[in-house]
Amino acid sequence: MQEQHRPLSIKGLTVAYQKKPVLQNITFDIPEGKLIGIVGPNGAGKSTLIKAALGLIPRLTGDVSIYGKPYREQRKLVGYVPQRESVDWDFPTSALDVVMMGRYGHLGWFKRPGSKERQIALECLEKVGMADFAGRQISQLSGGQQQRIFLARALAQDARLYFMDEPFVGVDAATEKAIITLLNELKKQGKTVLVVHHDLSTVKEYFDWVMLLNVKLMGIGPADELFTKENLQRTYGGRLTLLNRSDDAIFVSAR
Ligand SMILES: Nc1ncnc2c1ncn2[C@@H]1O[C@H](COP(=O)(O)OP(=O)(O)OP(=O)(O)O)[C@@H](O)[C@H]1O
Ligand SMILES: [Mg+2]
């Protein structure tokens, strides 16, 4: 019965685009309250895994359950920060509106967001250091600022399980720090966060668990045990260049 209450449990998931499988027979579940890095080369299926878990794309086979039930029954418990390139940034809406969208799941039918929702959204903007930009059109913000707005939206959702697709891409060092502080805050509140991450040099520092993915699941578990040279070479194949410095390898150009 314990397993039923896992934040995310996936069994035998296969996804194909035009008959070409991009995820093959993926099975795993994750414990609550961990920061989990999803690692793998470009095209490994990382974004696809998240989209399939959220029912945004059809699966060929497999079951996904979130706290023991299908996603459609658990929407309120799940927050999603999409990969930046996949978002249409031209839609005419303010930063505050984008964050308010995170609150819709909490409102009943026909209810419009009121001053309480607005207050929550403003607090979330504050948390990501973007309160001064509340009224700004989302298209008129820089890439890193847009990223912060989407994080604020995820925070506003007050979910228990978060999926974040490359939140660190294209952000400066200060924003990266702000994001990692936020992730740790979420963890302290007992939330579970899955984060697609490309910078192998920070995986062990940022995450408790790591998922190694390349079409197949190459491993999932505590980062200390799994994040080894051998496992990374298996996951990235020839695309990984290793600079060895004693037993602690520095990983570069994992593309
Ligand atoms: N809509 C689509 N139609 C057809 N093929 C797709 C589609 N979306 C993704 N793919 C293919 O599926 C595979 C997995 O893509 P996915 O975006 O999940 O990779 P990823 O691991 O997130 O890569 P990246 O690190 O570049 O973000 C790739 O080979 C990609 O070309
Ligand atoms: Mg991706």
The overall pLDDT, averaged over residues, is 88
Structural class: alpha/beta
Widest sheet: strand ordering: 5-6-7-3-8-9
Q: CATH H level of the domain at 1-31 and 39-67 and 161-172 and 197-254: which superfamily?
A: P-loop containing nucleotide triphosphate hydrolases
Keywords: ATP-binding, Nucleotide-binding, Transport
Family: Belongs to the ABC transporter superfamily.
GO molecular function, one term: ATP binding
Protein name: Manganese ABC transporter ATP-binding protein
Describe this structure in words.
- This protein is of the alpha/beta class and 255 residues long.
- The protein has a domain at 1-31 and 39-67 and 161-172 and 197-254: Rossmann fold (3-Layer(aba) Sandwich), CATH 3.40.50.300.
- It has 8 helices and 11 strands.
- It has helices at 46-53, 95-101, 115-127, 143-157, 173-188, 203-206, 223-226, 229-236; strands spanning 8-17, 20-30, 35-39, 61-65, 78-81, 161-165, 192-196, 209-214, 216-222, 241-245, 248-252.
- It has a 6-stranded mixed β-sheet, with helices on both faces.
- The longest helix is centred in the C-terminal third of the chain and has 16 residues, at 173-188.
- It is globular and about 50 Å long.
- It starts with 7 loop residues before the first strand and ends with a strand.
- The relative contact order is 0.17.
- The mean pLDDT is 88.
- It binds adenosine-5'-triphosphate and magnesium ion.
- Residues 17-18, 22, 40, 42-48, 83 line the site of adenosine-5'-triphosphate (ATP).
- Magnesium ion is lined by residues 46-47, 83, 165.
- Pfam families: ABC_tran.
